[in-house]
Amino acid sequence: MPTCFIPDTKEHAMRITTTDPISGADVKNPEAHPFVIEGQGEGALKIYFENEDNKKIYLDIQTEHPGEDFTTNLDNPSRMGSET
Fold first, then answer.
1. Residue 84 covered by a domain
2. Dihedral sign from CA coordinates of 29, 33, 38, 41
3. What is the spatial distance between Cα 35 and Cα 51, in angstroms, rounded to a whole number?
4. Which stretches of the chain are assigned E, i.e. beta strand?
5. In which domain, by residue range, is 53 found?
6. Is residue 50 part of a domain?
7. Taking the complete model, does pTM exceed 0.70, yes or no?
8. Is the CB of residue 3 less than 8 Å from the CB of residue 26?
């Protein structure tokens, strides 16, 4: 059974996932669970969570948006492998 789908109507044209990105579990009866909507319009993604704790963990994850957000930098300043 797919966990991501796009409704046929323009009124609800957004992707929806019922896989909790924190636990990896499939959310049964998603209408009764917390969610967030990432993006806008047809490119939007509605993400359901098993519980409010997982939703909070997800929202607390820092993300970097190159060209838009100059306050978050996830670059690793440590030297890697054979770099000198």
1. no
2. positive
3. 9
4. 4-5, 15-17, 35-38, 45-48
5. 4-60
6. yes
7. no
8. yes
